[in-house]
Amino acid sequence: MVAARILRALAKKPDLVLGLATGSTPIKVYERMVRAHRNGIDFSRVRTFNLDEYLGLPADHPQSYRYFMRKHLFDGVNVPDDNIHFPPTDGSDLTKRCGEFEQKIRDCGGIDIQLLGIGRNGHIGFNEPTSSLASRTRIKTLTERTLEDNARFYGPDETQPEVAVTMGIATILDARSILLQSFGTAKANAVHAAIEGPISSFWPASALQYHANTTFYVDEESAARLTMREYYRRVQRAEADSEARGLM
Ligand code: GLP
After folding, report:
1. Which of the four pLDDT bands, split at 50, 70 and 90, describes residue 147?
2. pTM above the 0.85 mark?
3. Domain 2-244: CATH class, spelled out
């Protein structure tokens, strides 16, 4: 569904601006995009901005998000290297360069579609709990919980980075549309807090309630704590019906 939405948008706008996420959640979407390219879909004018990257990992480190994106998407589609952007994580003057990253997004006309996953603690990108809802791209220290969740990817001799650079919550909210995916029981509390909780920097994804065009794509496990599940199902059916009748 998510990949289909991206491909429909691409058909309408060949120079689509995509905000991209890492983690296990979006991998299937990237697989479908790669398959679409093999079947002739052109990505040569697409521009991409990734949400976040670890500080201090070189691009060829298997745990870096640049490596992840190459492996799961960029090696399989024809987005030109010059069109691929990550928050700055090496070199000096990161604060200034984070500002330039934000400017680059604006120069491209803003992000059309932002893909998101969600952390168990409700983080989006690496905006950990208590991140300012007005935050922009910046350095962020990771919480113990996030470090624990990602520790399994590191070998005993490898140092796990504790700091990352991430788009801010306000950066994410600037996107024209946001598609958040969540799978599995471990995310059920975060999904509940994001959709049905009060807006709070303690659950960063709850800031999406401010966004006029956000869709959550969740499985039964991640939806388990939603109190209005039946209503959301009806909304989904009604929207599908309206779409089929050409009303949307
Ligand atoms: C990391 C990323 C997030 C991602 C989260 C969940 O912390 N910075 O963007 O949403 O992991 O990962 P997963 O999809 O593997 O559960």
Report:
1. very high
2. yes
3. alpha beta
